[in-house]
Amino acid sequence: MNALVSIITPTFNSAKYIAETIQSVQNQTYSNWEMIIVDDASSDETVQIIESYSQKDVRIKNIIFEDNKGAGIARDTAVKISKGKYIAFLDADDLWKANKLEKQLNFMKKNELYFTFSFYECIDEDGVLLNKLIQCPQNLSYRQLYFCNYVGNLTGIYDVDFFGKISISHVRKRQDWIMWLTILKKIKIAYPVQESLALYRIRKNSISSSKLDLIKYNYKVYREHHNCNVFVAIISIIIFLFIQLFVKPSYIKKSSES
Q: Taking the domains of the chain in order of start, what are their residue ranges?
C-alpha cells in the first residue's frame, strides 16, 4: 500500500507546539503523505515556524486565514483541497508515534475497513507522559458514539473513495464528533487499532478541561446536528453524563498496562 494520506491540521497561536507536531509527521515510517496546515489568523510565530518546514518539505502545505474563522472552517478548507485517498487528522499540539500511519493503514487493508482509529496516551503541556492510556470499545457502535465520543481526533483515518470528502461542521467545537457520527451512521460499527499510536496534549484552556463547555457543545450537537427537541436533548445529556462518570472511566488505564 502506497496511497497518499492527507493530514489535516488547523493552527492558532501554536508556536509552542507546532514544530514538534510537524516533526512527528515527518518521522512517520509511512512517507506518502501531505500535511495541510491551515493557520487561523495566528498572532504569534506560528506561520513563520510552519514556513520554515514547508520551504524544505514539499509535502507540507500552509494556508493562512487573515481573520479568525474557527477550527471547523479551517479543517473543512483543508479537506476540500486535499488529494489523498485517506484523510487523517492531527491538531497542532498533538503528536503521532512514528509507526502510526503504517500500522493503521495496514490494519485497514488487512481487515477491509474504510475507517479506523486507535488508542492514545496523554501528555501535559510540556510533553511529559501522564501515565494515562485512553482505550475504547473494540466494536464501536453508532449508539455508543452518540452518547460518548470515544474516537480521539488525532487517531481517526477514513477512506475518501468510500465516504467521499466529508464536510466538517463549522461550529466552534465538537466538529470531530459530528464527523465520526456521520461515518458510523453509514458503517454501523467501527474497529480501533488496539494500541496507543498517538499522544494527546492536555492543556489548561482546552475544551476537555472545561466540563461546562463540553456539556454546552454536546447539547448544541444534539439540538442542531441530530435535530432533537429540548426534552430529548436534555435526556441525551443526562445519559452522556452517566456514561462519562461511570462507563468511560473503565476505558482509561495506566500507560504501563498498555
A: 5-257
Q: Under CATH, which number does the domain 5-257 receive?
A: 3.90.550.10
Cell, residue 110:
488487512
What number of CA atoms fall less than 13 Å from residue 93's CA on the CB side?
Answer: 18
What does the pLDDT look like over 243-257, one tens digit per residue? 999 999 999 999 864
The predicted model scores a pTM of: 0.94
- DSSP assignments along 157-171, one per residue: EEEHHHH--PPPP-S
Cα gap 2→221, rounded to integer Å:
36
Tens digits of per-residue pLDDT, 162-219? 999 999 988 778 899 999 999 999 999 999 999 999 999 998 765 444 677 788 889 9
Residue-wise pLDDT for 200-211, tens only, equals 999 876 544 467
